[in-house]
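[recover] target loaded
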């Protein structure tokens, strides 16, 4: 696949793909004889995985380490799992904090809705 096709399929920009490759977030992509990136389905799966992990808030450094370990093969399975478990726990913590923030916002909004309704009853009564 060309970079344009991968961008469309994965909803990323060419700059993002190049960044992923430069940072080691995806394994090096093969190139044609003309030097153009030639993405395989496995490369696309890496892009999808990295996008998902980044959207979940995983740190670039953790993902770089994970990819480097992946390239070492099965000997790194336990360490890769530890990275994912650690990042999962951080994500769960952030989700719980965001849930609390959402509850607080909902309470504030409910307060304003009640205050607005009261104001409307007092000031917009029809004579």
């Amino acid at each position: 696949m060309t970079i344009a096709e991968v961008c469309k399929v994965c909803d990323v920009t060419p700059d993002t793909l190049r960044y992923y490759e430069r940072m080691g977030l995806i394994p090096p992509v093969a190139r044609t004889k003309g030097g153009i990136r030639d993405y395989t389905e496995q490369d696309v799966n890496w892009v999808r995985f990295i996008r998902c992990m980044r959207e979940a808030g995983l740190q670039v450094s953790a993902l770089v380490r994970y990819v480097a370990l992946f390239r070492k093969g099965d000997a790194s399975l336990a360490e890769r799992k530890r990275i994912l478990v650690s990042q999962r726990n951080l994500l769960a913590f952030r989700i719980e904090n965001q849930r609390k923030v959402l509850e607080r916002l909902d309470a504030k909004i409910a307060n304003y809705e009640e205050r607005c309704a009261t104001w409307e009853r007092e000031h917009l009564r029809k004579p």
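[recover] notes: The mean pLDDT is 92.
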